[in-house]
Amino acid sequence: MSVRKALWGEKQEAIEESLKAADEDLFRYIRDFAYEEVLARPGLDLKTRELLAITALIALGSPKELATHLEGAFRAGATEREVRETILQSALFLGFPRALAAMRMLEKVLKAHGAPHPREG
Amino acid sequence: MSVRKALWGEKQEAIEESLKAADEDLFRYIRDFAYEEVLARPGLDLKTRELLAITALIALGSPKELATHLEGAFRAGATEREVRETILQSALFLGFPRALAAMRMLEKVLKAHGAPHPREG
Amino acid sequence: MSVRKALWGEKQEAIEESLKAADEDLFRYIRDFAYEEVLARPGLDLKTRELLAITALIALGSPKELATHLEGAFRAGATEREVRETILQSALFLGFPRALAAMRMLEKVLKAHGAPHPREG
Amino acid sequence: MSVRKALWGEKQEAIEESLKAADEDLFRYIRDFAYEEVLARPGLDLKTRELLAITALIALGSPKELATHLEGAFRAGATEREVRETILQSALFLGFPRALAAMRMLEKVLKAHGAPHPREG
Amino acid sequence: MSVRKALWGEKQEAIEESLKAADEDLFRYIRDFAYEEVLARPGLDLKTRELLAITALIALGSPKELATHLEGAFRAGATEREVRETILQSALFLGFPRALAAMRMLEKVLKAHGAPHPREG
Amino acid sequence: MSVRKALWGEKQEAIEESLKAADEDLFRYIRDFAYEEVLARPGLDLKTRELLAITALIALGSPKELATHLEGAFRAGATEREVRETILQSALFLGFPRALAAMRMLEKVLKAHGAPHPREG
């Protein structure tokens, strides 16, 4: 299974259409280099990779891209607890405002999915 | 075992002296809040926490603090491969210059230790 | 009076509900560590602390959290003039785009309050 | 022709009203120092200056100010291709999330203008 | 007294020579716009302005420029305690690594001056 | 001629050895993706690309990588004047401290080369 399939699930087609609409070359680089080359590397499991991605996006303060990787983390098997710990810890390194904004985005992502994710792994 | 003991190992005393010399209250906050409260939380293992810390410090561009957490990651059981994957992946989110600077810092940390860390986990 | 009461005023309950809804542990850390431990320290008055917070939030580019501390600065006794000077000065260190975005957020905060804050202290 | 006229075109009056409403002194600094002193310097053409501004704003993650300079770049003679290359390249230095957010903002700017900009210079 | 005289004291000439050597136009902008226009504005006292500058420089992670403004804060009448509180508070908004790096720079500045600054204001 | 040859000149071998020593995979990505795929794209000349890179690196505050691209800009045909204008302009968007640090790095790069670059293009 491609990394995109694993992380984007049933949204893969919609996400790819949206990326292509933004820029076809950027889409190709994101697909072929970012996802299927770098994120697909062995040596670190996809769940850990998505928790790292969440940390990087909290640092950047990029809410839309953060939402995509919050969903990706859940698809890669992260529990809600692991995602919350990742965000909580980011407060130490990146400050409380960034961590708080990320928690609010997590809230939105969880609400949009209706069914709660399991609190414990 | 305290989180500091686990992550700082034989350097614990030296690190604590250095933190105290910088500011006693900041030292207390780092010890009691950052390490023994937040990093000590269950829900995420210490190795993963240190890989997240490395990502956050690459984002900040803080070389000295990065070195501390590179060593912490190894003490928490991360392989050199896992640390390299963490840094490589950061290039996607934070750009190549930040990833390259982190790899150069990893080089220094590995050299300072003489004995190589195992390449494979 | 607690620091939260001083800075959040009649919005305290609403803000706390909103923080709790985001994450209960993050709420506790913000309440007990950030507000009632660090911001409550003597050695710097609350008004100055809020002007420093505004500067940090301009640097982060965090509009929602900036709004909270703009209101906090006014509750702590800052004049509109002092807040504008704080934002103006940030242009020197953080660039004009960040300062401009902060001024636009100040505009919104002032409008939401209807009554103008006194221009002079 | 003033730099503002060249970069803001028929929107000059609206932009200036909006800046003045935010803060009169900040408006004066942006007009007299940023635009008519620094951006007006010889030694680098306005088109290149706007591509540099786009890069800086991608780094800051400031979408509203980015939109203004995307339009400014087109008024200064940049082709859509040159703007896309500027954004694509930013992925290398600032990461894919920032580049993607900028491409989405470009999409909005292009749509708001109805008529397509020429793809090739 | 000029703002530069107030903040740079006996180092004014050396700092100005060093700025001129870097770039004469940048020197003029820093002197005439940053210092004698913006930082010279009434509405906020110089001590508060320097504490704000310290916060902005902690956010940027710019150690050399931070050292200049740590000294400037002392010349403008800030106590060591006020400077330490400013740095401590920055941990909440910008994370512990940035605050720690700033405390270490403060240590260097204090040592370079030999005589201790008064701990209490 | 490869982009690396054009931008790194006689230092190509040394830079590549240094990159390989840091991490072989990161080296390959920088060589094959960053340089020979993205920076090699038509649509924007190499000189403009290096001025954009300088702006991005000023934003990141990455001095070592900035030095490499300052030299790259000169090899790609930028005049000292164009490089100085690029740095000066960055003060508007990224603040004076970042611009000043970049000018000091330019000073070092120019001194290391002995012969002055032509001031005018």
- Biggest interface found: A-B, 30 and 30 residues
What number is the mean pLDDT of chain A?
Answer: 94
Oligomer: homohexamer
Compressed to H and E, one letter per element, the order of chain A equals HHHHHHH
Total strands of chain A:
0
User: What is the CATH top level name of the largest domain in chain A?
Assistant: Mainly Alpha
* Full CATH superfamily name of the largest domain in chain A: AhpD-like
Q: Give the name of the CATH architecture of the largest domain in chain A.
A: Up-down Bundle
> What's the number of structural domains of chain A?
2
Fraction of residues in H or I helices of chain A: over 70%
Spatial shape of chain A: globular
Strand count, sense and barrel status of the largest sheet of chain A are:
none
Strand content of chain A: under 5%
Could you give the distance between the termini of chain A?
24 Å
CATH topology annotation of the largest domain in chain A? AhpD-like
Using only C-alpha atoms, the radius of gyration of chain A works out to 14 Å
Number of helices of chain A: 7
User: Which structural class is indicated by helix and strand composition of chain A?
Assistant: mainly alpha
The parts of chain A where pLDDT drops under 50 for at least 5 residues are none
